[in-house]
Design brief:
10% strand, 8-stranded parallel beta barrel, two-stranded antiparallel ribbon, FAD binding, alpha/beta, 23 helices, single chain, TIM Barrel
């Protein structure tokens, strides 16, 4: 009667522990008064802009680069040009290994500090990064701090295990055929170190996750100590074993696909996910026929003022109350030809691991509030993302009651990006908390598409860059409209695309969204698109650089990944290089070649 997933589901057990929001409020996001001499991290205040609109010139180089001396401009020009060569990007690891062999580690590190590391990384520790943060702050640009030491998981063995696992998480276009091999139980290592040596862990990677949590705490404190209205970035796969997040993602995706299947049975296929409604009587009749024992109709009519219909948010709510709703959480098993518990194969130890992930998130949220910092949860590969988004939204439901502290990230290269954004906005409105998001195009497009083709599941990525841009603007327009209507949502437009930034400015002007409201933020990576970031900041918009830091030798996997992710942009960054040349020539002819930033 229907197609069922073969991937291992997770066993029903007690919920992952009650959680309470932090007691202290995050300090206000309203800018400081314009006469306050503050150079410490977030965008400075400006005089109020008018509703008639603000125009920003992204071609005027004197203002865009006044925070840089001429040697910094020259370095940017050289590094961005080198990054435009495919061979250097594709073979960067081999080139670095050769450089270390010929020059030695110390000399090689020094060259990196003068070039690629110096361009894209702020420094080695919290002390070293402060001068750059303060300088950017003085010129209108804030910071999203990211301690960027990460495991190198690029070995062929680990890649194969990861590939074998991703098929079942991504699933088929139907209700979800897939297979997760036994070898995927040993997915890659997530870090190193330990939080409390006296603790007993069900899995050795647990100690490493606690070490990562401590590192994130240091990053939060560094952001709070050096910035006003700053952000700190965290990665969920550093706080929980990746294989566990993959397993949880499988559960969430199976539950989502089951809802989509049930909607199709009621003739609702082809509709936007947020518009799909299941008629309860039909739902109960159908599920009873296929073997369900639970009283779906009674559950939903008894929990709320019933309209006789449920939507995807109601459906997902069963997972939040799974201790009491365990008889309702069932999905098809194609091999057995019957329904089986959704949470069938989660062991007691894995339940404890999930509890610890939420505990780590609660600890980080507490430190963020205490230090006046907002947490930015990074997006990752699609087969981890359902779990990452769910854990992030659960944290937002607790911590974003009074003001936006936790920001989720939405990857607009995904075909279902708009559905994800709209569902979470509707949930925030239904439950009364502040929605907060970072919109990105996405970092793993080629990688995801190749895996989908190789393993045989539906490609989750939009067909091309243009389709991704349309998705980005669709999600962005929806959020800008929501901000204009409710003033309770926040969005960071994390984009290096000048057209997207201009589109955002036009929409803000038309909706009457003022820069001083700090409801719309802009974000770019350190070392890229200064011609966009600094004019925006100087015009009074809230703009941030994503500021990585960490030891030279340990941060190289980050630089290698960023080079791969932004290869297409780097090749097309001719306009940025032209503007750098223009400013260098202007300084040479005007006698300003020895320009030093004053702040």
């Amino acid at each position: 009667m229907f197609t069922a997933t073969r991937a291992a589901a997770a066993a029903a057990a007690a919920p992952w522990g009650a959680r309470v929001p932090c007691g202290r409020r995050l300090r206000s996001t309203v800018p400081l008064s314009s006469n306050t001499d503050d150079r410490s991290g977030g965008p400075p205040s400006r005089s109020p802009s008018t509703a008639s609109g603000i125009s920003v010139d992204f071609t005027e180089t004197r203002g865009a680069y006044k925070s840089k001396d001429s040697l910094e401009l020259l370095r940017s020009l050289v590094v961005l040009k080198l990054c435009s060569f495919d061979v250097l990007v594709e073979k960067n690891q081999e080139i670095m290994d050769l450089g270390k062999t010929i020059l030695g580690q110390k000399a090689f590190d020094q060259i990196l500090k003068m070039t690629f590391y110096g361009q894209f990384v702020a420094g080695e520790d919290q002390t070293a990064i402060k001068p750059l943060i303060e300088k950017n702050r003085a010129f209108g640009v804030g910071s999203v701090l990211d301690y960027s030491v990460e495991e190198d998981i690029g070995s062929s063995e680990h890649q194969q295990k990861e590939t074998n696992s991703c098929a079942s998480a991504a699933g088929k276009h139907s209700l979800g055929e897939g297979h997760r091999g036994k070898e995927s139980e040993e997915l890659f290592v997530s870090g190193q170190g330990g939080w409390n040596a006296a603790r007993t862990y069900s899995h050795p990677d647990e100690a490493k996750c606690d070490q990562h949590m401590e590192t994130f705490i240091k990053c939060i404190k560094a952001s709070g100590g050096s910035s006003i209205e700053g952000f700190s970035a965290i990665k969920m796969t550093a706080l929980g074993r990746p294989q566990l997040l993959l397993q949880y993602s499988e559960v969430l995706m199976k539950w989502q696909r089951f809802f989509t299947f049930l909607a199709s049975q009621q003739g609702k296929d082809g509709m936007e996910a947020a518009e799909q409604r299941l008629e309860l009587t039909q739902l109960q009749d159908f599920l009873t026929k296929v073997g369900a024992k639970g009283d779906f109709h009674g559950w939903f009519t008894g929990k709320q003022e019933s309209t006789g219909f449920i939507d995807i948010l109601d459906w997902r709510s069963l997972i939040d109350d799974r201790e009491n709703a365990s008889d309702l959480l069932v999905v098809p098993n194609v091999e057995l030809g019957e329904l089986e518990p959704l949470f069938k194969k989660f062991t007691t130890d894995e339940e404890e691991e999930m509890k610890r992930i939420t505990q780590r998130l609660d600890v980080l949220a507490k430190h963020a509030v205490e230090n006046g910092v907002r947490l930015m949860v990074d997006a990752e590969q699609t087969y981890f993302q359902p779990a990452i988004s769910k854990l992030t939204v659960d944290l937002q439901r607790l911590q974003n009651r009074e003001e936006p502290v936790i920001f989720n990230t939405y990857q607009c290269y995904l075909k279902d990006a708009f559905d994800s954004v709209t569902a979470d906005v509707q949930l925030s409105k239904r439950e009364g908390w502040h929605f907060a998001a970072k919109l990105v195009r996405g970092a793993y497009m080629d990688q995801e598409r190749e895996r989908a083709a190789e393993i045989g599941y539906e490609d989750p990525i939009n067909p091309d860059y243009e389709a991704t841009s349309r998705m980005y603007h669709r999600c962005l327009d929806y959020l800008l409209d929501e901000i204009a209507q409710s003033r309770r949502a926040r969005v960071m437009v994390a984009s290096h695309n000048e057209d997207t930034v201009k589109h955002t400015l036009r929409r803000m002007n038309s909706l009457g969204l003022l820069p001083r409201e700090n409801a719309v933020y802009f974000g770019q990576l350190l070392g890229m698109c200064d011609q966009i970031s600094f004019p925006l900041g100087q015009a009074g918009f809230a703009v941030y650089k994503y500021v990585p830091y960490g030891p030279v030798s340990e941060v190289m996997p980050y630089l290698s990944r960023r080079a791969q992710e932004n290869r297409g942009f780097m090749k097309g960054a001719q306009k940025e290089r032209d503007l750098l040349w223009k400013e260098l020539k202007r300084r040479l002819t005007s006698g300003e070649l020895l320009h030093r930033p004053l702040y």
